[in-house]
């Protein structure tokens, strides 16, 4: 049996977990691969016009996956941490797919993820629907998820040691694991925290590989996945009330953490056009950066963005940071 | 305390509420283009349109002298839960330090804060009076909603154009003056007669067109932002009913779950045929009401949503499918500050034509409208 895992949305974070899990159960897993123009176009055509780019892209991956696999994996993320939730579009994701992709009928595997406090989404009960669908025993599911969780923990350890998500995924896929930690290079001229949801920052179409472009400019990168959950949340303590959305809180918390980090020279917030939660996260980040006196900029992109324009803008931002740093250094000297 | 509140739908109800608590009420003006402009100017660009409109309303109420603004907080997972905090921030940054914003979050989120707020707005009125008056208000809302539903059924058939709307305005003025329950019942009967005496045309059942209005609460309830869609439809000879009336909203949301009307739970169940879990906003209710309207023999649905509204985008994704499976035409209208009235009118008229043709058996087509294309500008913005 073949199951396609769309290379989009939380794929970038949970792929090692899901990949291991389904393989343990005997599935053949198909990764729909990085977003292409074709995938984007198919998704945009099927999805409603005003929905955010990440959902359009996801829809495209689903269409692609259905071509090559028997089933496609579309989890319904409700929450992984009480009292927060996911963006309503995540909560209704399988419904969106059913509404817009006709050929998905009866071929979508969509467990409901509704956990009080389990970032690893590893309770067997989430995946018990597979028992009904395919007749796996509870024991089989339990064992597969246990194995998958071990792999995921290892993956997270890589992230926390400073590997960005895409590199850690590479390490998982090649089986090199910790050996890849050497890739964490620290000799750039300036350090920038690139904040945003994994599916914005690492989707080569949405962010146009902003990380690679920055690295080519000798910039050290920090991202939100490198900040452990607890640290991110500790930084949110002074807010009257938290945001409703788990990953928005973590982006914001990581942002506040990096604002205090003397190594970080500036912040780039990567956000998709039409993102509701980011309208709020972005405003908070901007405000807090002003207070902290650190340069901040927003990279707001969608499927129509011109690449040249973006390159000019990030170059200008990096130049400014470098100049600032030199000015400070020469003052000291 | 000089109290004001956001303007949404039956604003006289909120006014009554604060009058009953013996506050000096500053009635917020009905939102206009100026309200919108003010709201847009001072709100974050990507905030939802209701947030911007309410922002504008606050500023106008403050101009009129309001010192306290009372609103509900709402809780997850939608942005509505942050309206209050965002508004408060903006007011502060505009230098209105003397204006207090009281936000009622759901009591279960923070009981203590909730009761502190209650104490504040109770304004020292003795509890037995509060309870008695709140009960009057409850009936007040019920009666007013009943009359409004009548209006929506009479307007399409009125002989003298505009008469129903005129009477409805008079009714609201009369209700505004009500002080006691006894008065309420008397005025209600009087108003009912006024409506019944409006001359109407006899229209054959097979020529009657009924349209249900569903969607996000603010754009459904507030006529100034939906261009008075109920009136537009009524003038086109169409009977309308909304998915949301204040009285039902109170019963559905403020009454404990077990006491809630069965109808509400049924709507949710119907909605879950397409959206399996509650996802915030009114998405599941929207779907439930679409199915419900169809079952009750309505001819079409107008779906109103703020542009890029998160939960309603989920609904909108499902509309072609629902429309086909349930066999009812649905017109989905996203609304933002750029939505033009003329454009909207054309689309509504085309939609009603379709409904009429369908009813006469001329077409089986289910008209699905996928949103005007928004101008796509270069969208890399670095601020
Ligand atoms: S969080 Fe933003 S980008 Fe992600 S699905 Fe929701 S609206 Fe889209
Ligand atoms: S329901 Fe829609 S309009 Fe209301 S807060 Fe949520 S996104 Fe905004």
UniProtKB/TrEMBL annotation, chain A:
<dbReference type="Pfam" id="PF09989">
    <property type="entry name" value="DUF2229"/>
</dbReference>
<feature type="domain" description="DUF2229">
    <location>
        <begin position="2"/>
        <end position="227"/>
    </location>
</feature>
<dbReference type="InterPro" id="IPR018709">
    <property type="entry name" value="CoA_activase_DUF2229"/>
</dbReference>
<dbReference type="InterPro" id="IPR051805">
    <property type="entry name" value="Dehydratase_Activator_Redct"/>
</dbReference>
<protein>
    <recommendedName>
        <fullName>DUF2229 domain-containing protein</fullName>
    </recommendedName>
</protein>
From TrEMBL, chain B:
<dbReference type="InterPro" id="IPR051805">
    <property type="entry name" value="Dehydratase_Activator_Redct"/>
</dbReference>
<dbReference type="InterPro" id="IPR010327">
    <property type="entry name" value="FldB/FldC_alpha/beta"/>
</dbReference>
<protein>
    <recommendedName>
        <fullName>DUF2229 domain-containing protein</fullName>
    </recommendedName>
</protein>
<dbReference type="Pfam" id="PF06050">
    <property type="entry name" value="HGD-D"/>
</dbReference>
């Amino acid at each position: 049996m073949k199951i396609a895992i769309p290379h989009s949305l939380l794929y970038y974070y949970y792929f090692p977990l899901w990949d291991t899990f389904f393989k343990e159960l005997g599935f053949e897993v198909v990764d729909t691969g990085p977003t292409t123009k074709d995938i984007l176009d198919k998704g945009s055509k099927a999805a409603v016009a005003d929905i955010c780019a990440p959902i359009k892209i996801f829809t495209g991956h689903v269409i692609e996956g259905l071509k090559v696999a028997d089933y496609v994996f579309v989890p319904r993320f409700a929450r992984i941490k009480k009292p927060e939730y996911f963006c309503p579009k995540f909560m209704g994701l399988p419904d969106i797919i059913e509404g817009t992709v006709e050929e998905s009928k009866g071929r979508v595997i969509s467990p409901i993820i509704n956990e009080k406090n389990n970032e690893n989404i590893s309770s067997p009960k989430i995946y018990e629907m597979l028992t009904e669908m395919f007749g796996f025993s509870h024991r089989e599911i339990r064992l597969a998820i246990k194995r998958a969780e071990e792999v995921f923990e290892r993956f997270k350890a890589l992230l926390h040691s400073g590997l960005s998500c895409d590199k850690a995924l590479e390490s998982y896929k090649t089986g090199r694991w910790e050996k890849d930690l050497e890739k964490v290079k620290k000799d750039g001229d300036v350090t920038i925290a690139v904040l945003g949801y994994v599916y914005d920052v690492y989707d080569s179409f949405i962010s146009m590989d902003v990380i690679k472009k920055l690295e080519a400019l000798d910039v050290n990168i920090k991202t939100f996945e490198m900040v452990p959950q607890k640290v991110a949340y500790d930084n949110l303590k002074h807010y009257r009330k938290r945001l409703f959305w788990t990953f928005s809180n973590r982006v914001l918390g990581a942002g506040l953490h990096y604002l205090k980090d003397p190594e970080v020279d500036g912040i780039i917030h990567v956000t998709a056009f039409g993102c509701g939660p980011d309208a709020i996260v972005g405003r908070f980040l901007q405000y807090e950066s002003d207070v902290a006196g650190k340069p901040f900029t927003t990279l707001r992109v969608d499927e129509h963005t011109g690449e040249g324009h973006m390159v000019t803008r990030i170059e200008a931002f990096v130049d400014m940071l470098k100049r600032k740093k030199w000015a400070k250094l020469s003052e000291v000297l | 305390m000089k109290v004001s509140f956001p303007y949404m739908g039956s604003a006289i109800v909120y006014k009554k509420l604060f009058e009953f608590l013996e506050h000096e009420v500053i009635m917020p003006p009905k939102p206009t283009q100026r309200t919108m402009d003010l709201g847009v100017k001072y709100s974050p660009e990507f905030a939802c349109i209701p947030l911007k409109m309410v922002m504008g309303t606050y500023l106008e109420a403050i101009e009129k002298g309001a010192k306290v603004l009372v609103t509900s907080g709402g809780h997850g997972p939608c942005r509505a839960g942050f309206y209050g905090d965002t508004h408060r921030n903006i007011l502060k940054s505009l230098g209105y330090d003397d204006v207090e914003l009281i936000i009622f979050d759901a009591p279960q989120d923070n009981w203590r804060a909730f009761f502190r707020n209650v104490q504040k707005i109770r304004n020292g009125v003795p509890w037995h009076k509060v309870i008695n008056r709140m009960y009057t208000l409850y009936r007040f809302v019920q009666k007013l909603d009943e009359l409004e539903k009548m209006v929506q059924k009479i307007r399409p058939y009125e002989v003298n154009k505009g008469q129903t709307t005129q009477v409805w305005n008079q009714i609201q003025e009369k209700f505004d003056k009500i002080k006691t329950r006894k008065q309420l019942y008397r005025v209600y009967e009087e108003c009912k007669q006024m409506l019944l005496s409006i001359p109407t045309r006899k229209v054959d059942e097979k020529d009657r067109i009924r349209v249900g209005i569903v969607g996000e609460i603010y754009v459904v309830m507030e006529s100034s932002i939906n261009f008075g869609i109920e009136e537009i439809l009524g003038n086109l000879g169409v009977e309308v009913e909304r998915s949301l009336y204040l009285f039902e909203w109170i019963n559905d949301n403020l009454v404990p779950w077990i006491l809630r009307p069965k109808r509400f739970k049924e709507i949710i169940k119907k909605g879950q045929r397409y959206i399996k879990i509650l996802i915030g906003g009114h998405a599941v209710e929207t779907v439930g009401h679409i199915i419900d309207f169809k079952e009750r023999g309505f001819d079409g649905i107008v779906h109103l949503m703020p542009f890029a509204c998160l939960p309603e985008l989920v609904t909108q994704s499902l509309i072609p499918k629902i429309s086909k499976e349930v066999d009812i035409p649905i017109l989905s209208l996203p609304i933002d500050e750029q939505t033009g009235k003329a454009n909207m009118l054309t689309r509504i008229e085309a939609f009603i034509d379709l409904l009429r043709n369908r009813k006469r058996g001329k077409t089986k087509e289910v008209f699905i409208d996928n949103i005007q294309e928004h101008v796509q500008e270069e969208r890399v913005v670095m601020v």
